[in-house]
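Entry 12.
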Amino acid sequence: MLSIIVVVNLLIETSVSFTVVVPGDPIAAHVGSTVIVPCWISPPENAEALEIRWYRHDQFSNPVLLYNHGKIQDVQEEPYRNRTSLALRSDQSGGLKDGDVSLRLEKLTFQDEDSFHCYVSGESSYDSREVVLKITALGSAPVLFPKPLDDGRVNISCRSSGWYPKPSVSWTSDDGRALRPGGSSHSRGADEMFSVHSWTAVSLSDAQLVSCSISLRTGELKEGRLNIQGIVSSDSSGPWKALFFFVLTCALLFGCLVGLILYKYREKLTGNKPAKEICEEETLERLTKEVVGDINIEELRKHAVEITIDREHLHPDLKLSKDCKTVRDSKDYHHTGEGFPFQFCAFGAQRFTSGRHYWEVELAQTNTPPKNYWLIGVVKHGHFTTRDRSALTPSAGFWFLCSDGPHGFYTNTEPPVKLSLTPRPERLGVLLDYDEGLLSFYNVKESKHLLTISSRFSGSVGPLFNPGAGDLSPIMILDCPEPVESAVELAAESSDNPEPVELPQSSQPLLSNNSSDA
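Predicted 3D structure (tokens):
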């Protein structure tokens, strides 16, 4: 009698059907990563004796993974060989004994974006469900480039690359209001990833801090920010200035035209050519000089601080002067072109956690050409280990401008940006605006703004120097002279509404990299 009961129970157990369960929403994962595609049996039962088959589309006989007879079989699509296995869908999962038949897929590619079928079969029942896998690639942090317009606004260009699928772009102001883009374009490279370019024109009445956000449908995004207060004059007379220069241009051109008419008859008598071309050239030159102003170095020097080099963390292959202000490579040889020596780093002894700080670096000595190889910027305190360029990133706590001889000038932003700086700087000014997240570089002798890197600083930040190798000139940190107060500045100080400090206006790029929090 007992044996009959056992047989009946076995028949009942084997006749009970199960259901395959998968998530209702698609699974999203980054290209190159590993993903777990969940699938389990309900009600839970031991699946060690069942057949578990993962396959795509109608490739039932050519599975991604096949588990049968207690082990994974050597039958699968070739692209998935050595990339798939069974895995736990969570830390609380009991694995196969608990009916967890989830798929682990490694080294994801764009070709893996597909529908995956989870098929489970026993002696008396089977079931199958479909899971959609979406592949994504989170691109680079947006880089923002400002360009002042004649009407007082700034045209801001936002670029980023390395996205998949095609991302969306949005512009917002500092108070969260949406700004209307002037346009957007997408392009797709040979690597199947998308690059995006968007632009908008704003004024101070629209926003002071402009954000460009690039996002995926998964909600993941990267954001670049730009403070336009230093690019657009906050003076309400801006439109009147534009009108003044327009009227001035018209008046000068009209004067040239009148002069041409008056001299036309004289030209016939004397045979002299009209002065129209000369007048137009003089007008253009005059307006150019009046509209395009140089950087006021004296204003920058109001934020000057004394900088010395930290002897304790100096690279052993560098020479440092007794006053800790001059550093160079210890070997007197010309650079062989083997690559920039990024390991030759020297670090400032001073640290900053707020405010504006300015210093100047001499890059040329008397009767010697300017240095070809140097690296100057800031570094997060404690990040003294340097190996190669790949280790010197904003996310690792480094922000700098590099001069690499014939390879030109470039930043370490992500992605890096190459620059054409002419003439080559002989004295470089550096302004760290910690609170605004800005690092600016200036050609002091030319009184020109070179570029500004926009980032987000955290913790204490200090100066970073690298003299390169093979140049005759070292890097020398200067003691900035006391700023000279002009009559205009003295008058401004005595007024109730002093003139604001004029921040750099330039067509050179302002680079934003919000992934640089370190």
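Annotation: The chain has four domains: 2-136, 143-230, 238-291, 297-516. The radius of gyration is 33 Å.
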